[in-house]
Design brief:
alpha/beta; 434 Repressor (Amino-terminal Domain)
Length: 290
Amino acid sequence: MGQQAQRTARRRRLGAALKQLRESARITTAEAANAIHGDKTKISRVENGRHRVTRLELETLLSLYEVEDPKVHKWLVALAAEGRKRSWWRQHSDALPPGLKELLTLESDAAKICAFQTQVVPGLLQTSEYATTVMTSAEQKQMSAERIRFFVNLRMERQQILQQDDAPRYLCILPEGVVRQQVGGAKVMAAQLRHLIALSRPPMMTIQVIPFSQGAFTATGGSFVVYSYPDPLDLDVVQVEYLDGALYLEEDETVEKYRMALDGLRAAALSSQQSVDLISSIACEFERDR
């Protein structure tokens, strides 16, 4: 994809910030382009998050825009930096759709991931057997068995970010129906639930279940994930799933609504230990049914 790489969240935020700084400095796109030996189209693509900007180009633009605040400078440099852990999937880059590349980038750089999933166990927590069943049943384009194996293996590779020394903190909230739904049958589900129990290690990995006994709880409209990044990025992104892809939300007001929704969901859910106890009891039921 070269310079026409997909628009990552950090690149969109960087572009918007550079546009605001340029306009505040009353610098035209032509003047900005001339400073970095480019053209107006390049500046437009940078500001729209569709083009990478090098460190030298960024420093030149910040000097042109007279950005003197060290905190702003540090924040913009951090936004422009490439992801810390993305190299592992670059070997598969040509085989991945843009939306999946966006997801991998968000996961790899996040300091905290909060997922609410209404239908299946999140991909980062799935066993290979569970993932194979999900992909096989959900795939509308009838992928080949080889292609499904490729994406299942990729999903297993994705999970390595949770084993890193600087792994993101992960919060998973699931309605009880997700852990009772027989995806792949009793044997697959029993193994999947035992896997969740093994993963649970608060506060780094927290799994909470909203029990049927809770009744109505916070309405969210569906599954979503909130990715949070530490200073100097100070960036949160919400991923909302839909039938044919995902939507990425970054406006502060919108993100705050999802943070509040998470708070409501956590309040409705069992504690981490209570959730593990419930998952364990359900796993025992599946094991008896095998």
